[in-house]
From TrEMBL:
The keyword Hydrolase applies. This is D-alanyl-D-alanine carboxypeptidase/D-alanyl-D-alanine-endopeptidase. Residues 486-496 have a biased composition (Low complexity). Residues 480-502 are annotated as: Disordered. GO terms for molecular function: serine-type D-Ala-D-Ala carboxypeptidase activity. The lineage of its organism: Bacteria, Pseudomonadati, Pseudomonadota, Gammaproteobacteria, Lysobacterales. Belongs to the peptidase S13 family.
């Protein structure tokens, strides 16, 4: 394995890149191969491994999120609610995500159904969409401004719904330059200056929305016969979207609502906590945390990851300690980082070998070592929730972000691992059984790698994920053959000799 890996990563095209690899025997912690295993790397979405571990460690696999509906007073005998309706979120990342058995608006219909069953026919107050359960911030530290328009970098809110995204459709029905939003409750104002392109004209379609603004600029030129294009974009205000979807559900269930949809993002001084002095109508509960983590890891969902970091941070803030810091943080996400540090300490991961600014891996400020990651994986393997975590990871050639990778190889159906991809940063870490049945934990990290290109700009090598997979296959094929002694290409520890153990 050592010679094969060493030969592969010694290719000239990796001359300016850095590889970090650590492979251990899961049963006893023996190091089987390492290269730059103690160096810090950008983990990309391998950060989600740490966030999943944190949430399971802090909250447990059976934890559920609750989204509550309150009224400021009880409805009258004639079915009129002369007061406000409050939709209060507590960080459920799955609200409105839909499934095989649920539509994206089932949650709102459930709340409206309960109101109607209580005889409510009319609401004269406002509908307040309240996400004050978390104290922010709406974006992870280090998320790039150029990403914030896209659905994969949607803002974080305690009242998140439908992944905090909306669909923009450009063109269709014979028109090249129309633009429409779905759902309308996203409250996005389109400023469309698209025009038909002349023959030979090249003016690509462009989109722009300033962070926090609901104005979406659609500009450029399109050929008259162009096919429609569909974009998944971040909604500017998730709480407002949730409020709008609930208002739509009220109308579907025959409840007349004459007030305004308002949002509350920060507690006002002197206001009572929710539940005190309010009439509870009903709750919507999420699936157990173990199920949510399965979605997060299989699909590498950034919103889920950041919300689970904040949920862990909320729990940590209620404990009230941040590893002895003199001035504890005020924002929920930073409490989450405190909780992460506490978990790393519990896992025996050395200080200085893992740094996080957020929970998804979108930030290039995050840094971890391959050695810290294999140590985490071995620690997780000994926890009561070990099976929940392993079953949540993508499986090579089977599902999630590894569905189409390593098919037809010994890794298919065998390797369970978290992928990670940012520009110039590629990672894969997880579990696999070797050719001789040994349970292994591994972490492969490749940073600062750009595919070589020829003079006309076309790449002369495959995608970096193929290189990561090639190393993973070599690890999978490891058997009982004695490994060579340490060399410049990496170091191997022959079976039977002592090595570091977590």
């Amino acid at each position: 394995m050592a010679d094969a890996i060493g030969a592969y990563i010694a290719q000239p095209r990796f001359a300016h890149a850095t590889w970090g690899i650590d492979v251990i025997d899961l049963s006893d912690g023996r190091t089987l191969y390492r290269r730059n295993a103690d160096k810090l790397f950008i983990p990309a979405s391998n950060a989600k491994l740490y966030t999943a571990a944190l949430a399971l460690h802090t909250l447990g696999p059976r934890y559920r999120f609750h989204t509550s509906l309150y009224a400021s007073r009880a409805p009258s005998a004639n079915g009129t609610l002369r007061g406000n309706l409050i939709l209060y979120g507590r960080g459920d990342p799955s609200l409105g995500m839909g499934s095989d058995t649920q539509t994206p608006t089932d949650w709102a219909d459930k709340l409206a159904t309960v109101l109607a069953a209580r005889g409510v026919k009319r609401i004269t107050g406002d509908l307040i969409a309240d996400d004050t359960y978390y104290a922010g911030p709406p974006f992870g530290a280090g998320w790039e401004a150029s990403d914030l328009l896209s659905g994969f970098a949607a803002p974080v809110s305690a009242l998140s719904v439908q992944g905090n995204t909306f669909t923009l459709r450009v063109g269709g029905n014979g028109a090249c330059c129309t633009a429409s939003v779905d759902p309308l409750a996203a409250d996005v104002r389109i400023l469309n200056t698209l025009h038909r392109s002349a023959p030979g004209e090249y003016d690509p379609l462009g989109l722009y929305r300033a962070p926090g603004s609901n104005r979406l600029y659609v500009f450029g030129a399109r050929p008259p016969s162009s096919k429609p294009r569909v974009f998944n974009l971040a909604t500017p205000d998730p709480a407002r979207l949730a409020g709008g979807l609930l208002a739509d559900a009220l109308a579907r269930h025959g409840i007349r609502f004459t007030g305004r949809i308002r949002t509350q993002h920060w507690p006002h001084p002197g206001e009572d906590e929710h539940g005190k002095g309010l009439v509870r109508i009903t709750d919507v509960r999420s699936a157990p945390l173990g199920t949510l983590i399965r979605h997060m890891l299989k699909h590498s969902d950034n919103l889920y990851a950041q919300l689970l970091l904040m949920a862990s941070g909320k729990h940590q803030s209620e404990i009230g300690t941040c590893l002895g810091q003199r001035h504890p943080p005020t924002l929920t996400a930073y409490w989450g980082i405190c909780a992460m540090r506490a978990m790393l300490r519990d896992a025996g991961i050395a200080a200085g070998s893992a740094f996080f600014e957020e929970g998804s891996g979108l930030s290039r400020k995050d840094r971890v070592t391959p050695e810290a990651t294999t140590r985490l994986l071995r620690w997780l393997d000994r926890q009561r929730f070990a099976n929940d975590l392993k079953q949540a990871l993508p499986v090579a050639g089977v599902d999630g972000t590894l569905r189409y990778r390593m098919r037809g190889t010994p890794a298919a159906g065998n390797l369970h691992a978290k992928t990670g991809t940012l520009r110039y940063a590629y990672t894969l870490s997880g579990y696999v059984r070797s050719a001789n049945g040994q349970p292994l934990a591994f972490s492969i990290m490749l940073n600062d790698y750009a595919r070589p290109r020829n003079t006309d700009g076309r790449p002369t090598a495959g995608r970096a994920t193929r290189d990561i997979d090639a190393i993973a296959r070599l690890i999978t094929e490891y058997g009982n053959v004695p490994l060579p002694s340490p060399s410049a290409s990496g170091s191997a520890v022959p079976a039977g000799k002592d090595s570091k153990s977590p």
